[in-house]
Amino acid sequence: MNSVNTDNVIDIPQTCLVALVGVTGSGKSTFAARHFAPHEVVSSDACRELITGDANDQSATKDAFEVLDVIVGKRLDRHLLTVVDATTITPTARQSLVALARKHHAIPIAVVLDVPLKLACERTEARTDRAYGAQVPTRQHRELRKSIKNLAKDGFRQVHVLRTQEEIDAVEFRRVPLYVDKRDQHGPFDIIGDVHGCINELVELLRTLGYTIVKDVQGRYLDAYHPQGRTAVFVGDLVDRGPDSAGVLRLVMGMYNSGNALCVPGNHDDKLRRILASRANANTPAALATLQQVREATPESFASEVEDWLFSLPSHVVLDSGALVVAHAGLKESFHMRASGKVREFCLYGDPSGEVDAEGHPIRRHWELDYRGKAHVVYGHTPVATPTWVNRTLCLDTGCVYGGHLSALRWPEKDIVQLPAFRTYAEPALSLVQMRAKAAFDALERPGFEVGAGDVLGDRWIPTDNAGRVKIEAAQAAGAFETLSRWSVDPRWLVYLPPTMSPVETSDLPDFLEHPAQAFSYYRTHGADKVICEEKHMGSRGVIVLTRHQEAATRFFGVTKDFPEGGTVFTRTSRRFFDASLTDTIITLTREAFEEAGLWDELGVEWCALDTEIMPWSLKAEDLIREQYAEVGAAGRIALGNEIAAYEKALDRADLDAETLTRLAARLEKARGRLGNIEGFTRAYGRYAWQVTDLEGLRIAPFQFLGGNGRTWEDQPHTWHMQQASRLAQAEGGRLFMPTKHLVVDVNDKESCAQATQWWLEHTEAGMEGMVVKPVANLVRSKKTGKVVQPGLKVRGREYLRIIYGPDYLDAGNLSRLKRRGVERKRYLAWAEYALGLEALKRAAAGEPLWRVHEAAGAVLALESEEVDPRL
Question: Mean pLDDT throughout 313-330?
């Protein structure tokens, strides 16, 4: 039973369940109102009133406590301190609150207001809102007297009994962090894997990490410190199997006590603690050897010091503003910053399935495969051949005691430092060769490359660096999930999806629907003074992802097939662009061009993603051209040809009056004009259709180097991207790749804008689709709004727009109607999809789990299901 300290202060964790225990009239509600905010207190009386309108309606007690349990549970799930104001006189009532706290992995604390019975009776009788008198507090007081000594047995971690009104009036509460809460410690850290008594390897690894070792006159290792103030963090299992468990304990305890290290217990350490406390038997040779070393160590108090120290260790630690969690066997997200027996058990043993393998070893569930937390979790416990990040989790037990390595992770650098074991001290259940084989299998089957339906489906808010949180509706997400699950390329390659692109505002010129002036005006308004006008190729958007070599394909994408399965090409909706054979050929040519141009070394990457346009349009739109555009053209030519012939024949008749002839001549002229429109329409789509045989006739125009491992290039100006694309085309010899025509424009210079407009007019009249206007600086924030501006605006040519709006769209009546189109929704989608695509790319470049990449990339697909005028 805990007592209040001399300052009349009770320390309580910032997250816990505080049960106020006391008879009617003890002043619990007044006490709660004095020390806690109204939203922190959950009262059984208030729950009765919520249900029935009467706080004293005892018939609603059962329902009231069901409501109370729900509210308390929801608050504890949110890591909120929660105070329960109820009598909780009986052991059964108190134990139900303890069970509720344990269910939500919170610490249960009892604060007992043990006021004199006379005072409680006087207060109860003085109340006008209740009909009962002294008999109720008398009965409750008798019940409390029977069980007050057993409150700790009810399961409360702290019990504070206030016996007088003076104590009640004087007490104060101080909120303190949970023992596991070290979020205010920011390192830098060196996290060290399972040591298992390997003292010499530990000392050498600490030296490798830059620590200075402190020894006593007997040569024993007492402490280690880093000149630059780094802190070591041990994942546990300091003892057993190795040559000097006592020496490891002495060193780590010294570092811990001097503030140079943190430590969490491993299951072997916890067993040693229980053996020293006579709560377990040393029933294995390793445990017996460790116990002997500890008991024979000097001074004589060493064993009790070890027991006390191991008992004091937190189950896990949460560090660096919550970005890092260290636990011996790992920890699923719902257990972070929690305190319960189940949490501690998970930290020590992982997530056992209850089954054993053929050798009798426990089979553990792979919790890390389902981990979706924001924090990085570093752990040990189960030896692996090589530390590998899996969904922001990393196992550092690399079997030093078995002749493997002692491993450390430098945080926040995320560099792994390894020291080979000096010898094999124990034989593992799996040999290191078997571990490596298992690791290779796991790399193919499991780590980091799994995406579940829950990662894409449902209403979602996707956080992005450049557009804040983007809302995705469940219906939109469902469409994206169907595409990803049925038609997508291998999801491991899907590191990015390109955004849609908005057209410019409607032109105010009489004969134009779109014109460069509106693009220049938009960027001028938002302070993007320099823009680049890039030729808009009439093809299909394609993303190329390739790796430099097979090792990179395996390491970054989990690909284990024979080379050249080191890349792919996919459409803007994630579908495979070419068949497997042609894809391999294109990836091989692209890789060779990268090598020839020296781009791999210059860019400093081992994989790279390119945004491209792939020509001809007919490659992907052949059916559309044949079944829609060609049929319209053919039908128009036939119908209008017949109409013109009929008008010409009629005009040759001598029996028609002048008025009729004039009317027929006007109709003939209109039909000839419409036939001209049909011929313009046919020429427009015909320019973008030609025969392709394998690589013959295929053209690819890269226009943005997106990113690779460790970096993205949205901060590079578009002129840089054009230069890299040209280098790629030159290195490849122009057989496959082609550069993009472009022009840099000063939007504040009328002459510069006029030259660009003339360039656009000449090229669109010669058959170019149009141009895309982008800020030269690439990703730019508006000087007017602070938001990221549109990444690009398309300005399509007059003739090309016949494909989009129909052969006769330039007729005065049609054009006037089309000029009323709105582009606001299209603008939003282009802006949001750009931010989401870039978010996916950044996550992939940073090596984040595939589910995190697909969370953003899938959102691009989801927004594509938005209903918006497809002609925009």
Answer: 96
Closest CA to 701 of 631, 750, 769, 626: 769
Strand partners, 503: 794
Using left for φ > 0, alpha for ψ between -120 and 50, and beta otherwise, residue 539 falls in beta
pLDDT tens-place string over residues 511-526: 999 999 999 999 999 9
pTM, full prediction: 0.75
pLDDT tens string 339-374 = 989 999 999 999 887 777 666 667 778 898 889 899
pLDDT at residue 267 in the model:
95
Tell me if 768 sits within 8 A of 688, measured CB to CB: no
How far apart are the C-alpha atoms of 479 and 485, rounded to whole Å? 10
- Separation CA 566–CA 733 (nearest Å): 22
Tell me which residue of 110, 870, 830, 849 sits closest to 467, measured CA to CA: 830
Q: What are phi and psi of 161, to 5 degrees?
A: -110, 120
Q: Which of the four pLDDT bands, split at 50, 70 and 90, describes residue 445?
A: very low
Residue 624's pLDDT is what?
81
**End-to-end Cα distance, the chain:** 73
Continuous segment of H or E residues that includes residue 702 = strand 699-708
**Pairs from 255-260 (Cβ < 8 Å, separation ≥ 24):** 255/223, 255/224, 255/225, 256/309, 258/223, 258/225, 259/231, 260/223, 260/224, 260/225, 260/226, 260/231, 260/232
List C-alpha distances in Å: 477 to 74, 339, 347, 374. 27, 36, 35, 22
Count of beta carbons in the 10 Å neighbourhood of residue 817: 11
Query: Across residues 844-861, what is the average pLDDT?
Result: 90
CA contacts within 13 A on the Cβ side of 512: 19
DSSP β-bridge partners for residue 775 = 531
DSSP letter assigned to residue 25:
T
CA of 163: how far to CAs of 26, 148, 601, 655, in Å? 11, 12, 76, 123
**Radius of gyration over alpha carbons of the chain, in Å?**
37
Average pLDDT over residues 325-329: 97
Q: Which residue has the tokens 């916890």?
A: 270
Residue 794 is encoded by which pair of tokens? Answer: 């398309």
Task: Give the whole-angstrom CA distance, residue 193 versus residue 386.
Answer: 12
Whether the per-residue pLDDT at 5 is higher than 60: the answer is: no
- Best CA proximity match to 315, nearest among 340, 332, 333, 334: 340
Cα–Cα dist 811/653, whole Å: 30
Nearest by Cα to 297 from 276, 277, 278: 276
Beta bridge partners of 711: 708
Confidence band of 437 (pLDDT split at 50, 70, 90): very low
Amino acid 810: pLDDT: 86
Alpha helical stretches, state H, 746-811: 750-765, 801-805
The amino acid occupying position 665 is: A
pLDDT tens across 780-832, in order?
999 999 999 999 999 999 988 988 888 888 888 888 898 888 888 999 999 99
- Which residues share a beta bridge with 464? 468
- Of 32-36, 38-42, 414-418, 728-732, the range with the lowest mean pLDDT is 728-732
Q: Is 490 exposed, middle or buried (0-12, 13-18, 19+ CB in 10 A)?
A: middle
Those residues with Cβ within 8 angstroms of residue 459's Cβ, 6 or more apart along the chain or in another chain? 471, 472, 473, 474, 477
pLDDT > 70? residue 680:
yes
* Token digits of residue 289: 């050897």
**Residues 6 or more apart from 792 whose CB is under 8 A from it?**
501, 772, 773, 774
Residues 151-203 pLDDT 10s: 878 889 999 999 888 999 999 999 999 999 999 999 999 999 999 999 999 99
The sign one gets for the Cα dihedral 383, 389, 394, 398 is: positive
435/478 Cα distance (integer angstroms): 40
- Give the ranges where 244-284 is alpha helix by DSSP (H): 245-257, 267-276
